[in-house]
Write a structure and sequence with these properties.
Blueprint lengths: L6 H9 L3 H16 L8 H12 L5 H8 L3 H13 L3 E5 L7 E5 L1 H24 L2 H21 L15
Antiparallel strand pairs: 1-2
Helix pairs in contact: 2-6, 3-5, 4-5
Length: 166
Amino acid sequence: MDVNHSPSRRRRHETSPVGPELVELLEVLWERGREVSYPPVSASQLRVLYSLDREEGINLRTLGELLGSAPPSVSRLCDRLEALGFVRRLPSQVSRRELELHLTGHGRTYLRELRERRDASLLEVIAAMKPSARSALLAGLAGFRNALDETGHAPGVRPAGDARTA
């Protein structure tokens, strides 16, 4: 039996009583925001939309690096999003061999409406919290953001070329 007492493994173990409950609560809020989402978009497709919203005009290779995904997977995700009318591929102005990925007006509207619904849902729950609970949530999320900043990538997503497992 491999016993690893590295700091990261100890930290995971220390958070285990709270971690699963927190993740489940966040998933409930996430799903509440998706209930009225039409057409339904998977979490992976939503990550593509968010990435293109931040990095307009990137190519498939760069998108794959951002997502930590293989080119065929990224291409299939974009195929589906293109079929929904959320993404379009255009010839690159830099290289004739590349295509640029762009959000369509429909894709931008979808993201805006999704964000509005999620904001309203989250604000409704936050407004119902006691002030002390809101302060604790703010402190906890600030700690989460700081931990995220220290790792340099999203939880569970390794930078491209990182062979470690989560």
